[in-house]
Amino acid sequence: MPEKVLIIGSGPAGITAAIYAARADLDPLMIEGFQRGGQLMLTTDVENYPGFPDGIMGPELMEQFRKQAERFGTRIISSDVTRVDFSSRPFKVWVDEDLYESDSIIISTGASARWLDVPGEEKLRGYGVSACATCDGFFFRDKEIAVVGGGDSAMEEALFLTKFASKVTIIHRRDEFRASKIMANRALEHPKIEVIWNTVVEEILGDTGVTGLRLRDRVKDSVSELPVEGVFMAIGHDPNTAVFAGQVETDEAGYILTGDNSVTSVDGVFAAGDVVDKVYRQAITAAGMGCRAAIDAERWLESQHG
Known about the structure:
Elements: E1 3-8, H1 12-23, E2 29-31, E3 45-46, E4 56-57, H2 58-71, E5 75-77, E6 83-85, E7 91-95, E8 98-107, E9 111-113, E10 129-130, H3 133-136, E11 144-148, H4 152-161, E12 167-171, H5 181-189, E13 193-196, E14 199-205, E15 212-217, E16 222-226, E17 230-233, E18 237-239, E19 269-271, H6 283-305
Parallel strand pairs: 1-2, 1-8, 2-5, 8-19, 10-17, 11-12, 11-17, 12-13
Antiparallel strand pairs: 3-4, 6-7, 7-8, 9-18, 14-15, 15-16
């Protein structure tokens, strides 16, 4: 017998979908992946998720999510999906050589921030290195920080961070921004923002927290150090959709396209969270989308089976 609903991914969207699907008696199977829990597993303190007035560690929050899904009967496989076939029902999902079939699918594989892959970055991720200003900006009140990037998202991050930081330095590898003119001008005209052009980050300095950046001027080929207590990567995100290529419609960046609800281009396949959302990218918005996907799947299954 095929599953009623199979959920791929285990961030806030996937686990919320599992909780709702389990409570609707759909006996969901969730393939959480080897890196379970989504991007919150890389976040130290979460202070903007409702219900936790004193804040909570990202991994701890995701563990509570997971326990709640299991409490209602969600079955969990801690492996990665390696192949799918959505061309006919029941839909087929492979984990290595193991085949799973399901009447409906919820895709919630999230997105991954792009990183620089320079020394110090991985060690200090969550300790001054971040890819989300709205998640972590509050922790840098009255501190000097840097933003790496030159697109609209970098301008948005930098402008948001001026609410907290004493100074924001934008580091950009070229001599002009890729951002829209209006966003670039807002950043360039802001009294708290400075820009270092034609420069790349070669190393993030610090032992238990960020103390500075080692920079290389691409024109002069000279090296300098910039003392900062935080650095925000704003060089883009990539949706985790490679395994679904050719199976559901995506935009040019690979984000899964849905209508007003969570319905994809394939009847019976739904999507939620950062795999769809390139605007908000918050745990709470992902969780809300997971709820919608589970309800959409439940109603769709009822329409199929009466």
